[in-house]
Design a protein that fits this description.
Blueprint lengths: L2 E4 L1 E4 L2 E8 L15 H30 L1 H14 L2 H14 L3 H17 L4 H22 L13 E5 L4 H5 L6 E6 L7 H9 L3 E3 L4 H4 L5 E5 L4 E4 L3 H22 L15 E6 L5 H6 L5 E5 L13 H15 L3 E5 L26 H7 L1 H14 L4 E6 L5 H20 L9 E6 L2 H5 L1 H4 L5 E4 L1 H8 L18 H16 L3 E4 L9 H8 L3 E4 L4 H8 L4 H12 L4 H12 L2
Parallel strand pairs: 3-4, 4-5, 5-6, 9-10, 9-16, 10-11, 11-12, 12-13, 13-14, 14-15, 15-16
Antiparallel strand pairs: 1-8, 2-6, 3-7, 7-8
Helix pairs in contact: 1-2, 1-5, 2-5, 3-4, 4-5, 11-13, 12-13, 13-14, 19-21
Length: 572
């Protein structure tokens, strides 16, 4: 009997194949007393070494298939296996309590997992998942049990699992794994992000897919609408084959737009740029017709390692991106660490509310040596392309002025050393704090551009943590309050002859795009895989006609009212 399970559409596309239940064996731990604790510790060390060797192979595979930034997850996993704060307590437990290594590992790992899961911090909760993934691998070696290996799948399947760990997802072979669905997870989970990079349709967070699907059953994963159809009839299969063909044909049509300019029907050009994390991501930008890089997240250079990156390492990374992009603009965001992104080697104090705490530009202005190193690397790289520098999390004019003065000091020093620096670097800010959006008219007199970071602007304006499921209904991109702030920023920029872009998720949203066009946004920066779809949409729209509709939306009462208005008039 055909059943439909609903979840979260994590990666677009349609896949139809037999279900492959990915179920790791139960790792049952029994406590035993040991006489030779040295031998037990040697067993532990051998299991750790085997696990490290496996993770190195997985990291290498992930780097080739997914790019360097996704492979950094496994660099972090390798660090966990070398972390004395985790390993030493396990060894101490073996020695002092004379217990077997697997019991000591299980006890200590569960203590850390519980500790991190109970923290009100999304980054730390993700660390719990990392520890669970890594220690499960070590435990399997200690118990002599083989962990399921997704890379060994040799026929076309849809993977069904409670969850996919980063190491599971990195080993998926696109030739055979046509889609996947999980009980848990969201659009921002590791597996969802990786599935989009692999372009494998995925539906996550279904809660019941593992209990509702048997191995070998025919399954349809609809990553467009967030549905899993179990044991479909021939008629349903035919419907979804048509839907898949239509989506594939649509993608083929979008692909024809790679070299097109993004121009509205009334001749207005807007720039479609991409958000990237590493130099490896530039390939995707060019393949998808990106007209620039609207956000280069430099924190990936700092993560998954034990020390700060050197000036030379940073210079090479920035130079590589600028050279590949040629004369196309590259907006580089200076270090945005804090909130959900932490660097263990900085040893920063724990905060009650890290998203509103010591992060981004606040951290850089206090830790100036680190900041100046990054700015020097950027300035040295500036002669290799069209660099624009953007400061994140700016709340006051004083912060911008101080950050810019440090940048100019470093520029003067480099020129004094005889090092060439571009004279055409634009310096702007991310607008992600409501106070900055409200004061945009004053900022616009001093900055060269604005880039609106809607992911944070929305949660700060509506006082709703976007990671908290209980208040997720308040994460409303189309809320008239958000639209009014966006308009204020765009109008302020234009009054001073400056440009305004957007680098949050909203920039690639098909409902938001007509609104943003009508409000006068100049640059839309999104994930590279969203560019061609957005271009196709913009080519059919008239900016002049949209102006009056955007004004109407500003006067509406609710986000739902705005959404319905745009969908009825411009979508489908």
């Amino acid at each position: 009997m055909t059943t439909t399970i609903t979840g979260i559409a994590a990666s677009p596309g349609i896949s139809i194949a037999k279900a492959f239940i990915l179920q790791n064996p139960e790792l049952k731990v029994v406590k035993t007393k040991v006489k030779d604790t040295n031998e037990e510790i040697q067993r532990l060390e051998k299991a750790l070494e085997k696990s490290k060797a496996e993770l190195e192979v997985i990291k290498e595979h992930a780097s080739k298939e997914l790019g360097e930034d996704k492979a950094e997850i496994f660099a972090a996993h390798l660090l966990v296996l070398s972390d004395p704060e985790l390993i030493n307590p396990i060894k101490d437990k073996v020695e002092t309590e004379q217990v077997n290594a697997e019991f000591a590992l299980d006890e200590v790992a569960n203590m850390f997992i519980t500790l991190f899961e109970n923290m009100d911090n999304e980054y730390m909760k993700e660390r719990a998942a990392d520890i669970r993934d890594v220690t499960k691998r070590v435990l399997a070696h200690l118990l002599g049990v083989t962990i399921a290996n997704p890379s060994m799948i040799s026929e076309e399947v849809v993977i069904i699992a409670e969850d996919l760990t980063p190491s599971d997802t990195a080993q998926l072979n696109r030739q055979y794994v046509k889609g996947f669905s999980t009980d848990i997870g969201g659009r921002t989970s590791h597996s969802a992000i990786m599935s989009r990079s692999l372009e494998i349709p995925a539906v996550v967070g279904t809660k019941t897919v593992t209990s509702g699907v048997e191995n070998g059953t025919l399954v349809i994963v609809d990553g467009l609408d967030g549905k899993v159809i179990v044991d479909p009839t021939e008629e349903v299969v035919n419907q979804y084959q048509d839907k898949k063909a239509a989506y594939d044909a649509q993608k083929a049509e979008w692909a024809k737009l790679v070299d097109e300019k993004t121009v509205t029907t009334d001749g207005q050009h807007v720039e479609l740029a991409a958000n990237i994390g590493t130099p490896d991501d530039v390939q995707g930008v060019l393949e998808n017709g990106g007209e620039g890089v609207g956000l280069y997240r430099t924190e990936f250079l700092y993560m998954g390692r034990e020390t700060l990156p050197t000036e030379e390492e940073q210079f090479e990374a920035y130079k590589a991106v600028l050279e590949r992009m040629g004369d196309k603009p590259v907006v580089v965001r200076t270090l945005d660490i804090g909130g959900d992104k932490e660097l263990p080697y900085l040893d920063l104090p724990k905060e009650m509310n890290p998203f509103l705490g010591f992060r981004a530009i606040r951290l850089c202005l206090e830790m100036q040596d680190m900041f100046r190193t990054q700015l020097r690397a950027l300035l040295r790289a500036s002669v290799f392309g069209n660099l624009k520098i953007m400061f994140p999390m700016i709340a006051t004019l004083d912060e911008f002025r101080e950050a810019k003065s440090i940048l100019l000091e470093e520029k003067e020093k480099l020129q004094g050393e005889g090092i060439a620096v571009s004279e055409t670097i634009e310096v702007g800010i991310m607008v992600e704090i409501p106070s900055t959006a409200v004061m945009a008219d004053l900022f616009a007199k001093e900055v060269d551009f604005f880039s609106i970071g809607t992911n944070d602007l929305i949660q700060y304006t509506l006082a709703a943590d976007r990671m908290n499921e209980r208040v997720s209904y308040l994460y409303q991109p189309y809320n008239p309050a958000i639209l009014r702030l966006v308009k204020n920023v765009i109008d302020a920029a234009h009054k001073e002859g400056k440009w305004a872009g957007m680098c949050g998720e909203m920039a690639g949203d098909e409902v938001a795009i007509p609104l943003l066009l009508g409000l006068g946004l100049d640059e839309f920066s999104m994930s590279a895989t969203s560019i061609l779809k957005a271009r196709s949409q913009i080519l059919r729209l008239s900016r002049e006609e949209l102006r009056s509709d955007a004004q109407k939306a500003l006067m509406m009462n609710t986000a739902e009212e705005v959404k319905r208005f745009i969908e009825e008039k411009y979508i489908n």
